[in-house]
Amino acid sequence: MWVWINSGGAIMWLILTGGVIALVIFLERLLHLHRAQIKIEDFLKGITTNLTRGNDVEAIAICDQTPGPAAHLVRTALLHRDDDAAALTQAVRQAGIREIPRLERHTNLLITLAQVLPMLGLLGTVLGLLEMLAALMAGSPLAEIGVLAGGLWTALLTTASGLITGIPAYAGYHFLISRVESIAIDMEQTAEEIILFLTRPNAGAHHEP
């Protein structure tokens, strides 16, 4: 394995470093998004039950204890429940806008790596071919055979490594984005339901948090 890596030269090390960074980003984001996606129905049921009973403080405590942006939107709504409907909706919308970049954190770097890694592999291929051409222009036939083989080996290794790291990074990016979109849909549903609950007549007893 180390022989292959060293045969790839500096480009191979760049590709491997980028591949490791991409893997770390993917795993960190996957864990974060997994924690951020909750069972909306059960969560809202607990919130509305407490609000109906007048347990505003308990409802906010549930939001504080629940991870994810949906819980944050509900907490924002509860803190602005005395506002008129337009102000309440605006506050929740602004909170949602702030949450999306947090969900997408580092995904731009991941897609950048997915695009750059195969290009680094191509660069390694070009450098390997240049090495082969330089060997053709100088040295004895026996020397050329060894150098040509080394240049070809470098070209093939870097190309393969660029694709092996770039393709999973590209797939991982789109998988994470699909999870972000799913959470965003949950956020929208949660916001609509809690706003509807808080703005309807007789939404439940209200105690100041």
Topology summary:
Layout (H helix, E strand, L loop, with lengths): L1 H35 L3 H13 L3 H10 L3 H11 L5 H19 L3 H31 L3 H59 L10
Helix pairs in contact: 1-6, 1-7, 2-3, 3-4, 4-5, 4-7, 5-7, 6-7
Coarse shape:
rod-shaped
Largest sheet: none
Low-confidence stretches: 205-209
Total individual domains: 1
Along the chain, the helix and strand elements come as HHHHHHH
Summarize the amount of helix as a percent range: over 70%
**Cα end-to-end separation:** 61 Å
Question: Based on helices, strands and strand pairing, what is the structural class?
Answer: mainly alpha
Average residue-wise pLDDT: 85
Write a brief structural summary.
With 209 residues, the protein is mainly α.
Molecular structure report:
With 209 residues, this protein is mainly alpha-helical. The protein has one domain (2-199). Helices cover 85% and strands 0% of the residues. It has helices at residues 2-36, 40-52, 56-65, 69-79, 85-103, 107-137, 141-199. Helix 4 packs parallel to helix 7. The protein is rod-shaped and about 90 Å long. It starts with a helix and ends in a 10-residue tail after the last helix. Mean pLDDT is 85; it is low at 205-209.
Features:
7 helices; 209 residues; disordered C terminus; mainly alpha
